[in-house]
């Protein structure tokens, strides 16, 4: 039956080719082209993430608020951190599928920190499981969609060059992609509208190892490069601010609020976070806070500028963000540390993500 085998082979080759074409045709972002942009324009954003559950909340928050806050998600770029990059991409695609937003292009980036080997997982542990989504069995992969072929760093450079000073970067994972962007294309640093980071710690209180926050601990050199080479003041949402919100955002409130929801992305997150938070008191959707601040700057209640760097050599402090309090010249300050936000307003923003609650 060689002829029949040949026919079957041609059929499957054609099917795969069509799937690739369809995936490519749906990959164009809904963000307007530069020439079609109206005066004032939309606020564009690139979300660089490592796709644990909190990253997924950030992505959901952004996509469901594009119209309300006049923003558009230009791209999602994936980095190592909570999981390996292929798993990060699957988690992102799972959320995009749930929201009906497979038009948002996804790019694979750095798979390891700048200096290897990476930290021992006994120090950085697997809070979000090995795959970033609590190792939940979803019974299958997301529908046909593929990450884009370009490397995340190459695409970031292309986008910032194409839309100078019109794209904000939200970096909510280890900063390897951003550091590579800065080193490979130093001229692009001046073309980024603003940078928001979830990471670091302003009092030396860490959630990983002894004195470091997870994202900075996972690639201290990358964090050092970004803080010390950004021409603009970097907005930093540190671990201590996350901790200060834990009493308001308890796991009890989280599950009672969203256990019954028509939002398919939150349905996915219910499965993930039940595995992660079943025995925890405080809910820590860290990356979502950064998305909320970008969307709605009125929730900021206390922001203080400092000169900061990242400790690279300390035996117990490697990866810690060090505030240089003796540097009082404001022109030398490089970070704006977000110490306090309006938690009640964030609650309202979260409630608006539930379609049924939003309509009542």
Automatic annotation (TrEMBL):
Domain Inosine/uridine-preferring nucleoside hydrolase: 45-346
Keywords, ordered alphabetically: Signal
TM annotation in the entry: none
One Pfam family named in its UniProt record: IU_nuc_hydro
Stated name of the protein: Inosine/uridine-preferring nucleoside hydrolase domain-containing protein
Residues annotated as signal peptide: 1-28
MF annotations from Gene Ontology: hydrolase activity, hydrolyzing N-glycosyl compounds
InterPro entries linked: Inosine/uridine_hydrolase_dom (IPR001910), IUN_hydrolase (IPR052775), Ribo_hydro-like (IPR036452)
Keyword DNA damage listed: no
Family: Belongs to the IUNH family.
